[in-house]
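Exercise 7b. Backbone tokens:
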């Protein structure tokens, strides 16, 4: 009897559609529209993802992009990096596949500062240069490695991580694969000190154990 029940449960669990989890969010949030919103302003509507064209209209070009061929310009960025991403606009065939590719260019002594991707794990392959990479887990333990060309490193989903170019002569180039078509990126320094509107000074003073002038200086340095 117990065996039969167990078997039934297992069989039910294996039939797709009977037991499914909620879809993963593809945006930071998706506020439910009220009845009538759609009719009032159809162009202001978002869905969790992007609609698809008819499969009969699909062509090979929808699955190809050269967007990662060109280096990003790192001089315009205060941290000395530039990330170029595939997305559903420059690579429409990636829609619903749960994938993003990133080209990461990092200037001499530049870095991708501590940041996280709320919706994706990431694996980075270093093509050129020397990088010190690392992430911090939720117990605040640091995992760090020095990468040479050909080396790869995994950044687990949602954890704060960084990539720092320690090469003395050459810029660094890496490619990353991320398992979401919209990984999202939140740079810790900007989220805390350059949000719009600003987080209350008292909160930042206490959170970072600094004075009001420090808050002002950091905010100004980060363009907040
Ligand atoms: C990244 O590089 C591209 C191509 O050179 C440039 O158009 C873009 O402004 C750069 N982005 C940043 C944030 O500097
Ligand atoms: C890179 O960006 C800088 C600063 O915005 C600009 O002066 C320079 O012309 C750009 N270089 C290229 C190759 O686009």
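Sequence design result:
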């Amino acid at each position: 009897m117990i065996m039969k029940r167990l078997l039934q449960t297992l069989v039910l669990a294996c039939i797709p559609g009977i037991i499914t989890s909620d879809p993963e969010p593809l945006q930071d949030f998706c506020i439910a529209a009220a009845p009538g919103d759609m009719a009032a302003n159809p162009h202001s509507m978002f869905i969790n993802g992007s609609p698809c064209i008819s499969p009969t209209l699909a062509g090979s070009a929808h699955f190809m992009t050269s967007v990662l061929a060109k280096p990003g310009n790192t001089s315009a960025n205060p941290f000395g990096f530039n990330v170029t991403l595939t997305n559903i606009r420059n690579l429409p065939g990636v829609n619903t596949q749960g994938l993003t590719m990133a080209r990461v260019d990092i200037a001499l002594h530049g870095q991708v500062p501590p940041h996280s991707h709320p919706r994706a794990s990431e694996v980075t392959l270093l093509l050129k240069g020397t990088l010190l990479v690392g992430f911090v887990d939720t117990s605040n333990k640091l995992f760090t490695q020095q990468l040479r060309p050909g080396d790869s490193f995994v950044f687990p989903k949602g954890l704060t991580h960084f990539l720092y170019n320690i090469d003395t002569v050459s810029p660094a180039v890496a490619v990353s694969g991320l398992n979401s078509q919209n990984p999202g990126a939140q740079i810790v320094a900007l989220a805390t000190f350059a949000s719009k509107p600003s987080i209350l000074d008292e909160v930042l003073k206490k959170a970072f154990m600094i004075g009001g002038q420090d808050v002002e200086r950091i905010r100004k340095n980060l363009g907040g």
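Instructor comment: Helices lie at 2-14, 37-40, 188-193, 201-208, 212-221. The pocket of 2-acetamido-2-deoxy-beta-D-glucopyranose (ligand 1) is lined by residues 72-73, 76-77, 82 (CB under 6 Å).
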